[in-house]
Amino acid sequence: QVHLEEFGGGSVQTGGSLKLSCVTSGRSITDYAAGWFRQAPGKSREFVAVISWSGDVYYADSVRGRFTISRDDSKNTVYLEMANLKPDDTAVYLCAGPGKGSRDSDWNTLHYAWEYDFWGRGTQVTVSS
Length: 129
Fold this sequence. Notes:
4-stranded antiparallel sheet; mainly beta; single chain
């Protein structure tokens, strides 16, 4: 059974930084992309960033230049480094793993939540002004 768990959330002031981690158990992440999404109260789930099995990355416009997604396959872990945080970044951050491996997944659709079969429970990030 595949299980994802996020770590690293917290409360920071505007301009601060946080680094989130997502640890996968139950399968190796080596052959899979991984994504980060977020959900603020009263809002729908929003794409944040995705990294391919080979390290290609793609970001939402709202975080590009401030957030960095990376992976360490030896630790079965994906990271999201967040800098210059803003109050609008306040949300529960969730990591996600697709059901399809590298040969079957479509890079052009990996920013959609429906591409992902496995989700963590999320970690809260709160940015105060």
